[in-house]
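Amino acid chain:
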Amino acid sequence: MATANLGSSKTRFGASAGLYTLIVIAALCMINWLANRYNKPIDTTSNKRYTLSDETKKIVAGLKGDVTITYFDSPQGFDTAKPLLDRYRNLSSKIHVQYIDYKKQLTLARSYGLRFPGSAFVEAGPKREEAKALTEEGITGAFLKVLKGSRKVCFVTGSHERQLDESGATGLSRLKDLLARDNYTVDSISLLSQSEVPKDCAVTVVAGPRNDYEPASAGALKSYVEAGGRALILLDPPLHVGKLETSDNPALAQVISSWGVTPAKDLVLDPSPVGQMIGVGPEVPLITDFESHPIVKDLKGGAVGLPYAESLDMKNGDNTTVEKILGSADRTFSTTNLTSNQISMDDPKNKKGPFVLGVAGTYKSSDPAKSGRFVVIGSASFLENGYIGLESNRDLAVNAINWLSSDEDLISIRPKEAEDRRMNMRQSQLNVFQWTVLVGIPLIIIAMGIAIYVKRR
Protein backbone atom coordinates (compact mmCIF):
# COMPACT_ATOMS: atom_id res chain seq x y z
CA MET A 1 0.00 0.00 0.00
CA ALA A 2 2.81 2.35 0.88
CA THR A 3 4.46 1.62 -2.46
CA ALA A 4 1.25 2.40 -4.34
CA ASN A 5 0.76 5.69 -2.48
CA LEU A 6 4.36 6.71 -3.20
CA GLY A 7 3.91 6.03 -6.92
CA SER A 8 0.65 7.97 -6.96
CA SER A 9 2.34 10.99 -5.31
CA LYS A 10 5.19 10.92 -7.80
CA THR A 11 2.69 10.78 -10.67
CA ARG A 12 0.74 13.76 -9.34
CA PHE A 13 3.95 15.74 -8.77
CA GLY A 14 5.19 14.98 -12.27
CA ALA A 15 1.86 15.96 -13.83
CA SER A 16 1.74 19.22 -11.86
CA ALA A 17 5.33 20.08 -12.80
CA GLY A 18 4.62 19.35 -16.44
CA LEU A 19 1.47 21.49 -16.38
CA TYR A 20 3.27 24.40 -14.73
CA THR A 21 6.07 24.13 -17.26
CA LEU A 22 3.58 24.29 -20.13
CA ILE A 23 1.88 27.33 -18.53
CA VAL A 24 5.21 29.16 -18.16
CA ILE A 25 6.21 28.36 -21.74
CA ALA A 26 2.80 29.54 -23.02
CA ALA A 27 3.08 32.77 -20.99
CA LEU A 28 6.58 33.44 -22.35
CA CYS A 29 5.38 32.83 -25.90
CA MET A 30 2.46 35.21 -25.39
CA ILE A 31 4.72 37.92 -23.91
CA ASN A 32 7.16 37.55 -26.80
CA TRP A 33 4.33 37.76 -29.36
CA LEU A 34 2.87 40.88 -27.72
CA ALA A 35 6.31 42.50 -27.48
CA ASN A 36 6.89 41.98 -31.20
CA ARG A 37 3.42 43.15 -32.17
CA TYR A 38 3.22 46.15 -29.81
CA ASN A 39 6.63 47.78 -29.60
CA LYS A 40 6.22 50.24 -26.71
CA PRO A 41 9.58 50.85 -25.02
CA ILE A 42 9.68 52.40 -21.54
CA ASP A 43 12.22 55.15 -20.89
CA THR A 44 13.43 55.01 -17.27
CA THR A 45 16.21 57.62 -17.59
CA SER A 46 15.87 60.63 -15.28
CA ASN A 47 15.64 63.20 -18.10
CA LYS A 48 13.78 60.94 -20.59
CA ARG A 49 16.80 60.90 -22.85
CA TYR A 50 15.38 58.10 -25.01
CA THR A 51 11.95 59.69 -25.45
CA LEU A 52 11.25 61.90 -28.46
CA SER A 53 10.67 65.55 -27.57
CA ASP A 54 7.37 67.41 -27.61
CA GLU A 55 8.61 69.33 -30.65
CA THR A 56 9.05 66.13 -32.67
CA LYS A 57 5.66 64.82 -31.54
CA LYS A 58 3.94 68.05 -32.63
CA ILE A 59 5.55 67.93 -36.06
CA VAL A 60 4.57 64.28 -36.57
CA ALA A 61 1.02 64.91 -35.31
CA GLY A 62 0.61 67.55 -38.02
CA LEU A 63 1.62 65.29 -40.91
CA LYS A 64 -0.84 65.40 -43.80
CA GLY A 65 0.85 62.74 -45.90
CA ASP A 66 3.29 59.88 -45.70
CA VAL A 67 6.93 60.46 -44.80
CA THR A 68 9.70 57.93 -45.47
CA ILE A 69 12.99 57.71 -43.60
CA THR A 70 15.63 55.89 -45.65
CA TYR A 71 18.74 54.74 -43.86
CA PHE A 72 21.84 53.67 -45.82
CA ASP A 73 24.45 51.46 -44.16
CA SER A 74 25.84 47.95 -44.15
CA PRO A 75 23.56 45.34 -42.50
CA GLN A 76 25.87 45.28 -39.47
CA GLY A 77 25.16 48.98 -38.92
CA PHE A 78 21.35 48.78 -39.08
CA ASP A 79 21.09 47.90 -35.38
CA THR A 80 22.74 51.24 -34.54
CA ALA A 81 19.91 53.20 -36.17
CA LYS A 82 16.94 51.00 -35.27
CA PRO A 83 16.31 52.24 -31.69
CA LEU A 84 15.99 55.88 -32.81
CA LEU A 85 14.18 55.30 -36.11
CA ASP A 86 11.73 52.88 -34.49
CA ARG A 87 10.72 55.67 -32.10
CA TYR A 88 9.74 57.77 -35.10
CA ARG A 89 7.86 54.89 -36.73
CA ASN A 90 5.96 54.22 -33.51
CA LEU A 91 4.70 57.82 -33.42
CA SER A 92 2.53 57.57 -36.54
CA SER A 93 1.39 55.11 -39.19
CA LYS A 94 2.31 57.79 -41.74
CA ILE A 95 6.02 57.34 -41.04
CA HIS A 96 7.76 54.53 -42.89
CA VAL A 97 11.36 53.42 -42.34
CA GLN A 98 13.46 51.46 -44.80
CA TYR A 99 17.00 50.17 -44.40
CA ILE A 100 19.16 49.96 -47.53
CA ASP A 101 22.40 48.04 -47.93
CA TYR A 102 24.36 50.66 -49.82
CA LYS A 103 26.80 48.11 -51.22
CA LYS A 104 24.08 45.97 -52.81
CA GLN A 105 22.09 48.98 -54.07
CA LEU A 106 24.91 51.27 -55.05
CA THR A 107 22.96 52.96 -57.86
CA LEU A 108 20.12 53.87 -55.49
CA ALA A 109 22.62 55.18 -52.93
CA ARG A 110 24.25 57.41 -55.55
CA SER A 111 20.86 58.73 -56.68
CA TYR A 112 20.30 59.94 -53.10
CA GLY A 113 23.68 61.64 -53.09
CA LEU A 114 25.03 59.36 -50.34
CA ARG A 115 28.40 60.61 -49.16
CA PHE A 116 29.13 58.10 -46.42
CA PRO A 117 27.35 55.10 -44.85
CA GLY A 118 25.26 55.63 -41.75
CA SER A 119 23.23 58.47 -43.31
CA ALA A 120 19.45 58.97 -43.13
CA PHE A 121 17.22 60.78 -45.61
CA VAL A 122 13.70 62.09 -44.97
CA GLU A 123 11.26 62.23 -47.90
CA ALA A 124 7.83 63.83 -48.11
CA GLY A 125 6.34 63.90 -51.59
CA PRO A 126 8.91 65.24 -54.05
CA LYS A 127 11.09 66.77 -51.33
CA ARG A 128 14.06 64.98 -49.81
CA GLU A 129 16.55 66.12 -47.16
CA GLU A 130 19.55 64.45 -45.58
CA ALA A 131 19.69 64.42 -41.77
CA LYS A 132 22.76 66.19 -40.47
CA ALA A 133 23.31 63.46 -37.88
CA LEU A 134 21.73 60.25 -36.65
CA THR A 135 20.18 62.05 -33.68
CA GLU A 136 16.75 63.43 -32.90
CA GLU A 137 18.02 66.91 -33.72
CA GLY A 138 19.27 65.70 -37.08
CA ILE A 139 16.18 63.66 -38.05
CA THR A 140 13.67 66.26 -36.85
CA GLY A 141 15.66 68.99 -38.59
CA ALA A 142 15.30 67.06 -41.85
CA PHE A 143 11.55 66.78 -41.22
CA LEU A 144 11.36 70.56 -40.86
CA LYS A 145 13.24 71.13 -44.10
CA VAL A 146 10.93 68.96 -46.20
CA LEU A 147 7.76 70.22 -44.49
CA LYS A 148 8.45 73.90 -43.85
CA GLY A 149 11.13 75.13 -46.18
CA SER A 150 13.73 77.64 -45.00
CA ARG A 151 13.14 81.00 -43.31
CA LYS A 152 15.67 83.76 -42.77
CA VAL A 153 16.48 85.38 -39.41
CA CYS A 154 18.38 88.67 -39.65
CA PHE A 155 20.54 89.98 -36.80
CA VAL A 156 21.11 93.73 -36.75
CA THR A 157 24.75 94.86 -36.43
CA GLY A 158 26.56 98.18 -36.36
CA SER A 159 25.90 99.33 -32.78
CA HIS A 160 27.91 96.74 -30.85
CA GLU A 161 25.20 94.08 -30.70
CA ARG A 162 26.07 90.45 -29.85
CA GLN A 163 27.77 88.72 -32.78
CA LEU A 164 26.54 85.55 -34.48
CA ASP A 165 29.90 84.02 -35.29
CA GLU A 166 31.59 84.74 -31.96
CA SER A 167 32.23 81.50 -30.06
CA GLY A 168 33.23 83.15 -26.78
CA ALA A 169 31.02 83.47 -23.71
CA THR A 170 29.29 86.63 -25.01
CA GLY A 171 28.79 85.42 -28.59
CA LEU A 172 25.72 83.88 -30.24
CA SER A 173 27.25 80.91 -32.06
CA ARG A 174 25.23 78.39 -30.01
CA LEU A 175 22.00 80.20 -30.85
CA LYS A 176 23.02 80.16 -34.50
CA ASP A 177 23.38 76.37 -34.36
CA LEU A 178 19.98 75.98 -32.66
CA LEU A 179 18.27 78.05 -35.34
CA ALA A 180 19.96 76.04 -38.09
CA ARG A 181 18.53 72.86 -36.59
CA ASP A 182 15.04 74.37 -36.86
CA ASN A 183 15.80 75.11 -40.52
CA TYR A 184 16.37 78.84 -40.19
CA THR A 185 19.11 80.53 -42.17
CA VAL A 186 20.78 83.36 -40.29
CA ASP A 187 22.43 86.50 -41.59
CA SER A 188 23.71 89.83 -40.32
CA ILE A 189 22.35 93.13 -41.60
CA SER A 190 23.41 96.72 -40.95
CA LEU A 191 20.76 99.43 -40.80
CA LEU A 192 23.54 101.99 -41.09
CA SER A 193 24.20 101.07 -44.72
CA GLN A 194 20.61 100.49 -45.87
CA SER A 195 17.42 102.42 -45.32
CA GLU A 196 15.10 99.48 -44.67
CA VAL A 197 15.05 95.94 -43.36
CA PRO A 198 15.40 93.46 -46.26
CA LYS A 199 12.09 91.93 -47.30
CA ASP A 200 13.42 88.37 -47.09
CA CYS A 201 13.94 88.66 -43.31
CA ALA A 202 11.22 86.52 -41.71
CA VAL A 203 12.40 87.72 -38.27
CA THR A 204 14.74 90.57 -37.35
CA VAL A 205 16.69 90.35 -34.08
CA VAL A 206 18.11 93.30 -32.14
CA ALA A 207 20.51 91.61 -29.70
CA GLY A 208 21.40 94.18 -27.06
CA PRO A 209 23.02 97.19 -28.77
CA ARG A 210 25.58 98.94 -26.58
CA ASN A 211 25.61 102.14 -28.67
CA ASP A 212 22.78 104.45 -29.72
CA TYR A 213 20.79 103.74 -32.87
CA GLU A 214 20.61 106.50 -35.43
CA PRO A 215 17.05 107.82 -35.87
CA ALA A 216 17.02 106.47 -39.43
CA SER A 217 17.97 102.97 -38.25
CA ALA A 218 15.31 102.97 -35.53
CA GLY A 219 12.79 104.31 -38.07
CA ALA A 220 13.59 101.46 -40.48
CA LEU A 221 12.85 98.93 -37.73
CA LYS A 222 9.60 100.72 -36.84
CA SER A 223 8.42 100.77 -40.47
CA TYR A 224 9.33 97.10 -40.85
CA VAL A 225 7.12 95.91 -37.96
CA GLU A 226 4.25 98.26 -38.71
CA ALA A 227 4.16 96.96 -42.29
CA GLY A 228 3.75 93.37 -41.05
CA GLY A 229 7.33 92.44 -40.11
CA ARG A 230 8.44 90.47 -37.07
CA ALA A 231 11.09 91.64 -34.57
CA LEU A 232 12.77 90.25 -31.44
CA ILE A 233 14.21 93.14 -29.42
CA LEU A 234 16.54 92.33 -26.53
CA LEU A 235 17.56 95.14 -24.21
CA ASP A 236 20.36 95.73 -21.73
CA PRO A 237 19.99 98.05 -18.73
CA PRO A 238 22.05 101.24 -19.27
CA LEU A 239 24.91 100.20 -16.99
CA HIS A 240 27.97 102.43 -16.56
CA VAL A 241 30.27 100.32 -14.39
CA GLY A 242 33.99 100.13 -15.14
CA LYS A 243 34.50 99.27 -18.80
CA LEU A 244 30.86 98.26 -19.20
CA GLU A 245 29.13 101.16 -20.93
CA THR A 246 25.62 100.68 -22.34
CA SER A 247 23.71 103.58 -23.84
CA ASP A 248 20.12 104.50 -23.04
CA ASN A 249 19.47 104.19 -26.79
CA PRO A 250 16.69 106.82 -26.88
CA ALA A 251 15.84 106.28 -30.56
CA LEU A 252 15.17 102.56 -30.07
CA ALA A 253 13.36 103.19 -26.77
CA GLN A 254 11.07 105.67 -28.52
CA VAL A 255 10.14 103.08 -31.15
CA ILE A 256 9.14 100.35 -28.71
CA SER A 257 7.42 102.92 -26.48
CA SER A 258 5.19 103.80 -29.42
CA TRP A 259 4.13 100.12 -29.39
CA GLY A 260 3.29 100.25 -25.67
CA VAL A 261 6.56 98.94 -24.15
CA THR A 262 8.70 101.35 -22.10
CA PRO A 263 12.12 100.37 -20.63
CA ALA A 264 12.38 101.32 -16.94
CA LYS A 265 16.17 101.96 -17.04
CA ASP A 266 16.80 99.85 -13.96
CA LEU A 267 18.48 96.59 -12.95
CA VAL A 268 16.41 93.74 -11.50
CA LEU A 269 18.09 91.61 -8.82
CA ASP A 270 17.03 88.32 -7.24
CA PRO A 271 18.34 87.73 -3.67
CA SER A 272 16.96 84.17 -3.49
CA PRO A 273 19.55 81.49 -2.57
CA VAL A 274 18.04 79.23 -5.23
CA GLY A 275 20.23 80.88 -7.85
CA GLN A 276 23.35 79.99 -5.89
CA MET A 277 22.34 76.32 -6.04
CA ILE A 278 22.62 76.37 -9.84
CA GLY A 279 25.71 78.56 -9.91
CA VAL A 280 24.34 82.07 -10.55
CA GLY A 281 24.16 85.23 -8.45
CA PRO A 282 21.48 87.85 -7.73
CA GLU A 283 22.12 89.53 -11.10
CA VAL A 284 20.33 86.57 -12.74
CA PRO A 285 16.61 86.65 -11.80
CA LEU A 286 15.10 83.18 -12.01
CA ILE A 287 11.63 82.85 -13.50
CA THR A 288 9.59 79.74 -12.69
CA ASP A 289 6.03 81.02 -13.19
CA PHE A 290 4.99 81.42 -16.82
CA GLU A 291 2.01 82.93 -18.56
CA SER A 292 -0.28 81.15 -21.04
CA HIS A 293 1.26 82.74 -24.15
CA PRO A 294 2.41 80.18 -26.77
CA ILE A 295 6.05 81.24 -26.33
CA VAL A 296 6.23 80.22 -22.68
CA LYS A 297 3.29 77.93 -21.89
CA ASP A 298 5.35 74.79 -22.54
CA LEU A 299 8.10 76.03 -20.19
CA LYS A 300 5.96 75.43 -17.11
CA GLY A 301 7.76 73.19 -14.69
CA GLY A 302 11.13 74.62 -15.76
CA ALA A 303 13.01 77.85 -15.17
CA VAL A 304 14.52 80.72 -17.14
CA GLY A 305 17.44 82.85 -15.99
CA LEU A 306 17.66 86.43 -17.31
CA PRO A 307 21.11 87.93 -16.55
CA TYR A 308 21.34 91.72 -16.15
CA ALA A 309 17.63 92.27 -16.72
CA GLU A 310 15.77 95.55 -17.12
CA SER A 311 12.09 95.79 -16.21
CA LEU A 312 9.45 96.95 -18.68
CA ASP A 313 6.23 98.95 -18.45
CA MET A 314 3.50 97.84 -20.85
CA LYS A 315 0.15 99.03 -22.12
CA ASN A 316 -2.07 98.50 -25.16
CA GLY A 317 -2.26 101.16 -27.85
CA ASP A 318 -4.55 102.11 -30.70
CA ASN A 319 -2.87 99.65 -33.07
CA THR A 320 -1.04 97.36 -30.65
CA THR A 321 -1.99 94.58 -28.27
CA VAL A 322 0.68 93.78 -25.68
CA GLU A 323 0.80 90.69 -23.42
CA LYS A 324 3.19 89.80 -20.60
CA ILE A 325 5.11 86.57 -21.13
CA LEU A 326 7.79 86.80 -18.40
CA GLY A 327 7.66 88.28 -14.92
CA SER A 328 9.94 88.16 -11.88
CA ALA A 329 8.99 86.82 -8.45
CA ASP A 330 7.84 88.89 -5.46
CA ARG A 331 11.24 88.48 -3.81
CA THR A 332 13.04 90.53 -6.51
CA PHE A 333 13.86 94.22 -6.33
CA SER A 334 15.18 96.78 -8.78
CA THR A 335 17.72 99.57 -8.49
CA THR A 336 18.37 102.63 -10.61
CA ASN A 337 21.92 102.91 -9.25
CA LEU A 338 23.60 101.77 -12.46
CA THR A 339 27.01 103.35 -11.91
CA SER A 340 28.23 101.23 -9.01
CA ASN A 341 28.92 97.52 -8.59
CA GLN A 342 27.92 97.73 -4.91
CA ILE A 343 24.15 97.52 -4.49
CA SER A 344 22.42 97.73 -1.12
CA MET A 345 19.19 95.77 -0.63
CA ASP A 346 18.15 98.30 2.03
CA ASP A 347 18.38 101.34 -0.25
CA PRO A 348 15.03 103.18 0.13
CA LYS A 349 15.14 104.02 -3.58
CA ASN A 350 14.87 100.35 -4.51
CA LYS A 351 11.57 99.12 -5.91
CA LYS A 352 10.04 95.82 -4.84
CA GLY A 353 8.96 93.18 -7.37
CA PRO A 354 7.35 91.56 -9.18
CA PHE A 355 8.38 93.13 -12.49
CA VAL A 356 7.52 92.56 -16.13
CA LEU A 357 10.63 91.31 -17.92
CA GLY A 358 9.26 90.15 -21.26
CA VAL A 359 6.28 91.00 -23.48
CA ALA A 360 4.86 89.88 -26.82
CA GLY A 361 2.73 92.13 -28.97
CA THR A 362 0.98 92.47 -32.31
CA TYR A 363 0.66 95.55 -34.51
CA LYS A 364 -2.47 95.98 -36.63
CA SER A 365 -1.10 97.06 -40.00
CA SER A 366 -3.03 98.56 -42.90
CA ASP A 367 -3.23 95.09 -44.47
CA PRO A 368 -5.43 92.90 -42.22
CA ALA A 369 -3.68 89.78 -43.55
CA LYS A 370 -0.26 91.04 -42.43
CA SER A 371 -0.13 91.88 -38.74
CA GLY A 372 3.24 92.82 -37.31
CA ARG A 373 4.59 90.96 -34.32
CA PHE A 374 7.22 91.93 -31.77
CA VAL A 375 8.77 90.42 -28.64
CA VAL A 376 10.68 92.63 -26.19
CA ILE A 377 12.76 91.05 -23.40
CA GLY A 378 14.68 93.09 -20.85
CA SER A 379 17.81 90.94 -21.13
CA ALA A 380 20.08 90.26 -24.08
CA SER A 381 22.60 88.22 -22.10
CA PHE A 382 20.31 85.20 -21.65
CA LEU A 383 20.98 83.98 -25.21
CA GLU A 384 24.76 84.40 -25.05
CA ASN A 385 26.85 81.25 -25.28
CA GLY A 386 27.60 81.51 -21.57
CA TYR A 387 23.93 81.53 -20.52
CA ILE A 388 21.84 79.93 -23.28
CA GLY A 389 22.44 76.50 -21.77
CA LEU A 390 21.07 77.63 -18.39
CA GLU A 391 17.81 75.83 -17.57
CA SER A 392 15.20 76.64 -20.29
CA ASN A 393 16.93 79.68 -21.82
CA ARG A 394 17.47 78.05 -25.22
CA ASP A 395 13.79 77.07 -25.40
CA LEU A 396 12.73 80.64 -24.66
CA ALA A 397 15.00 82.02 -27.41
CA VAL A 398 13.93 79.61 -30.13
CA ASN A 399 10.25 79.62 -29.07
CA ALA A 400 10.18 83.41 -29.45
CA ILE A 401 11.52 83.18 -33.01
CA ASN A 402 9.10 80.32 -33.81
CA TRP A 403 6.16 82.48 -32.71
CA LEU A 404 7.41 85.54 -34.55
CA SER A 405 7.78 83.55 -37.78
CA SER A 406 4.28 82.07 -37.30
CA ASP A 407 5.69 78.58 -36.68
CA GLU A 408 3.66 78.00 -33.54
CA ASP A 409 3.59 74.26 -34.15
CA LEU A 410 7.36 74.15 -33.52
CA ILE A 411 7.11 75.75 -30.10
CA SER A 412 7.99 73.20 -27.42
CA ILE A 413 10.83 71.83 -25.35
CA ARG A 414 13.85 70.88 -27.46
CA PRO A 415 15.47 67.42 -27.35
CA LYS A 416 17.34 66.95 -24.10
CA GLU A 417 21.10 66.83 -23.98
CA ALA A 418 22.90 64.05 -22.16
CA GLU A 419 23.34 64.79 -18.47
CA ASP A 420 26.74 64.76 -16.83
CA ARG A 421 26.09 62.35 -13.96
CA ARG A 422 29.65 61.74 -12.86
CA MET A 423 30.31 61.24 -9.14
CA ASN A 424 32.93 63.66 -7.83
CA MET A 425 34.85 62.26 -4.87
CA ARG A 426 37.70 63.53 -2.74
CA GLN A 427 40.81 61.36 -2.43
CA SER A 428 39.87 60.40 1.15
CA GLN A 429 36.41 59.26 -0.01
CA LEU A 430 37.97 57.32 -2.87
CA ASN A 431 40.32 55.54 -0.44
CA VAL A 432 37.42 54.53 1.81
CA PHE A 433 35.48 53.27 -1.23
CA GLN A 434 38.46 51.22 -2.47
CA TRP A 435 39.19 49.61 0.92
CA THR A 436 35.51 48.88 1.55
CA VAL A 437 34.50 47.49 -1.85
CA LEU A 438 37.75 45.97 -3.06
CA VAL A 439 39.11 44.66 0.26
CA GLY A 440 36.60 44.74 3.12
CA ILE A 441 33.53 43.14 1.51
CA PRO A 442 35.51 40.32 -0.22
CA LEU A 443 37.28 39.50 3.07
CA ILE A 444 33.93 39.33 4.92
CA ILE A 445 32.54 36.95 2.29
CA ILE A 446 35.66 34.74 2.50
CA ALA A 447 35.50 34.71 6.32
CA MET A 448 31.81 33.72 6.27
CA GLY A 449 32.58 30.91 3.83
CA ILE A 450 35.38 29.59 6.03
CA ALA A 451 33.14 29.78 9.12
CA ILE A 452 30.36 27.81 7.44
CA TYR A 453 32.83 25.20 6.20
CA VAL A 454 34.36 24.76 9.65
CA LYS A 455 30.95 24.46 11.28
CA ARG A 456 29.85 21.77 8.85
CA ARG A 457 33.07 19.83 9.41
